[in-house]
Write a structure and sequence with these properties.
elongated; single chain; mainly alpha; 5 helices
């Protein structure tokens, strides 16, 4: 299970970096975000998303399953944060406090400018921001990475 876990962790990280910096409109909307927003997002989230892969590799190299458990827990926290950020506003109309940290905009404003014109497959719920397909794929990769890492941990 080590290899699928590592592939998923790295795929999530690579996917995140590509969709943060490469304009794939209408799949994402890099052109609708500010350069400072993209750099901030990558600077904060990139290392956090890389850490579980590093811990999994170290766990395997040194036969220390605890490192894989920590990596899986970090990945689970990442997915919990992403799901909270995207799904709470959509499902219950609540925005998490960190949704727009440092942007000076509300989540509804940021979503309208950056994500509303991307591929969205979910039905509308009033005027609530909807998760876009780009982030639904990212969250799936992160969730699978967390699960596979935690499953792989005991065998390392």
């Amino acid at each position: 299970m080590f290899t699928p876990a590592l592939v998923l962790l790295l795929a999530a990280l690579l996917y995140f970096l590509v969709t943060t910096f490469v304009d794939l409109h209408p799949f994402n909307n890099v052109r609708g975000s500010k350069r400072s927003e993209r750099l901030s997002e990558a600077t904060i989230n990139g290392p956090v998303m890389a850490l579980p892969a590093i811990l999994l590799i170290l766990a395997s190299a040194f036969s220390l399953p605890v490192l894989a458990y920590v990596g899986g827990a970090i990945e689970a926290l990442v997915v919990a944060g992403g799901l909270s950020l995207w799904w709470l506003p959509y499902l219950v109309g609540r925005t998490v406090p960190w949704a727009t940290a440092g942007t000076g905009a509300s989540w509804a404003e940021l979503h309208s400018r950056t994500y509303a014109h991307t591929v969205i497959v979910l039905p509308r719920v009033g005027d609530r921001p909807r998760p876009n397909l780009e982030h639904m794929i990212l969250h799936t990769l992160i969730l699978l990475g967390a699960v596979f890492t935690l499953v792989a941990a005991p065998s390392l």
